[in-house]
Amino acid sequence: MVYPDGGLYIGQGGQNWRDGQGIFTYPNGDIYFGSWSQDCFHGQGTYFFSTGEIYDGMLSMNEKQGIGTYYYDKCTAYYSGNWYQNLKHGSGVLNSP
After folding, report:
1. Which whole-number Å values give the CA distances from 55 to 3, 27, 44, 52, 68, in the listed order?
2. Helix H or strand E encompassing 3
3. CA–CA separation, 54 vs 61, rounded Å?
4. CA 37 to CA 93: how far, in whole Å?
5. Beta partners for 25?
6. What is the dihedral of CA 25, 29, 34, 39, to 10 degrees?
7. Do the Cβ atoms of 10 and 22 come closer than 8 Å?
8. pLDDT one-digit tens code per residue, 10-65
9. Whole-number Å distance between alpha carbons of 61 and 39
10. pTM for the structure as a whole
11. Distance between CA atoms of 36 and 39, rounded to whole angstroms?
């Protein structure tokens, strides 16, 4: 499905919504690959930012939630651990060169 802004979705879902497994390419070059529920990121997924950063982990209704790893600065540094409502939360490891 091609969106009016140029976004492209390939995957499971209904006529105008995303649900199940799929990949979405944004007009700015960002790419999300993973689980969808009710047109939101939900479950295991990987988000590739056009800046070179990557988030790989659990999501809940479009937010980082649960265990995940965020790779900064073209993967030279990362945080791996717990997330809650898009914020680092609880235990985790921050590694930077």
Report:
1. 24, 18, 11, 10, 7
2. none
3. 18
4. 29
5. 8, 31
6. -50
7. yes
8. 999 987 889 999 999 999 999 999 999 999 999 999 999 999 999 999 999 999 99
9. 9
10. 0.92
11. 6
User: Whole-angstrom distance between the N-terminal and C-terminal Cα of the chain?
Assistant: 41
Amino acid at 65: Q
Distance, in Å, from the CA atom of 67 to the CA atom of 84, rounded to the nearest integer, reads: 9
pLDDT tens-place string over residues 63-95: 999 999 999 987 789 999 999 999 999 999 999
Residue 83 tokens read as: 């997330």
Which tokens in the block code for residue 16? 């105008």
**SS3 annotation, 13-28:** ECCCCEEEEEEEECCC
Provide the token pair at 38: 């009710």
